[in-house]
Design goal:
The chain has five helices and no strands.
């Protein structure tokens, strides 16, 4: 009985840990930034540029930005060419970022959009600390 119970508990724990990326700290590559493949980096930089240059003031402006961010996320994930530890570390950043963009897109008021946009900016600061 104990032998069959232990593997089930271990498997459940591993699954939970594997998918709980938000609580995992991103690690550097032996003190260096991880290299992101060019085919993916272009979409990340497009999003970062859109966020940094954003000067909209209306809900419609924020909705257009949300659409652009989501389109770039779709392009980024469909062009995923990375493997190994660099891929795993990127996912530690990407999954929470996608959640933040989803929350941004779900807003309906300008002040809520502005607040959520600050979290997106912080996410890019984190990205630039660990990736190039």
């Amino acid at each position: 009985n104990q032998e069959t119970t232990v593997p089930v508990e271990t498997a459940e724990t591993e699954i939970t840990q594997e998918h709980d990326h938000e609580s995992e700290a991103i690690e550097l590559n032996e003190g260096q930034k991880w290299i992101v493949d060019d085919s993916m980096m272009v979409h990340i930089r497009n999003m970062e540029t859109d966020v940094n240059k954003f000067s909209g003031t209306t809900v419609d402006d924020y909705q257009l930005l949300a659409t652009s961010l989501q389109d770039n996320i779709d392009r980024l994930t469909s062009n995923c060419t990375m493997t190994g530890k660099a891929h795993d570390e990127l996912h530690k950043w990407l999954l929470p970022y996608i959640d933040t963009v989803d929350e941004f897109a779900a807003q309906t008021e300008q002040t809520a959009y502005a607040s959520q946009l600050e979290l997106i900016k912080i996410s890019f600061t984190t990205f630039n600390q660990y990736f190039e």
